[in-house]
Amino acid sequence: MIAAATSLGGKTESGKAVCFEISPAEECSKVPGVEPESVDLLTAAMAAHWFDMDAFWSEAAQVLKPGGTIALWTCASCYCHPSTTNAAEVQRILFRLERESLAPYELPPNRISRDLYDNLLLPWNAKPPNINFPPSLFVRREWDRDGILSNGEDFFGGSDGTSLQGLEKEFSTASMVTRWRAANPELLNSDKDCVRKALSDIKEALQGQQTIVIGHGTALLLFKKSVPFQQISN
User: What is the 3-state secondary structure (H, E, C) of 175-199?
Assistant: First the structure.
């Protein structure tokens, strides 16, 4: 991923080249070129549930400017659009894959993500509590929890259809699927593969419909670093 990003390059608004580095989130203050309190925005997509959050909050406070923001977001579960042919049956199959076939391979971080970060360790609950990110400056936004469309029409981010082949590629990147396949190597590339079995059942339920619109519950958590009183006064 880093090699692909580097090949694309890019410029910041200041005209400087975009740089890509590999570093644990818990050591972001050690990234080359990152000075103390020099960062405006820290983001993590579909990743924070794997962090050591106690260590992350401490590191983030070191690199983030006063008034800077941390944005953490995740997507959870797969839901078919209500307009899907046999939507209830398709959703039952999706739930069976996630909550039955893959359940033994769900780790605690997976569950934190599936619960839309309801139980993600927040800075004021860290050990020790991190007072740089006060609850009064915290903002949480969420969309489409439990597959209920927040705007009544489309999933957050749009509702483009995908083929079952595309859906198989998406599912195959999930860590629970990876662990299932590692535990069941004899079933790889067979009709008993957990993803292929689910997609075969979905294909039957779709009754010839060629594409399916899939969405996810989405949560976005925004944390702003407080500005010291003296800095505000000046």
Answer: HHHHHHHHHCHHHCCCCCCHHHHHH
Grouping H, G, I as helix, E, B as strand and the rest as coil, residue 204 is helix
Per-residue confidence in pLDDT tens, the chain, 234 aa = 778 888 888 888 888 888 888 899 999 999 998 999 999 999 999 999 999 999 999 999 999 999 999 999 999 999 999 999 999 999 999 999 999 999 999 999 999 999 999 999 999 999 999 999 999 999 999 999 999 999 999 999 887 789 999 999 999 999 999 999 999 999 999 999 999 999 999 999 999 888 999 999 999 999 999 998 655 545
Distances (CA, A) of 37 to 53, 62, 112: 19, 6, 29
DSSP-derived 3-state class of residue 43: strand
Cβ neighbours of residue 39 closer than 8 Å, sequence gap 6 or more: 63, 64, 65, 68
The C-alpha atoms of residue 26 and residue 149 are separated, in whole angstroms, by 35
In degrees and rounded to multiples of 5, residue 44 shows phi and psi of -145, 120
Q: What is the C-alpha to C-alpha distance for residues 120 and 123, in angstroms, rounded to an integer?
A: 10
> What is d(CA 169, CA 174) in angstroms, rounded to the nearest whole number?
9
Rg of the chain on CA atoms, in Å:
21
The identity of residue 78, as a single letter, is C
Euclidean distance between CA atoms 72 and 42, whole angstroms: 8
Distance, CA of 137 to CA of 90 (rounded, Å): 40
Residue 158: CB atoms within 10 Å? 8
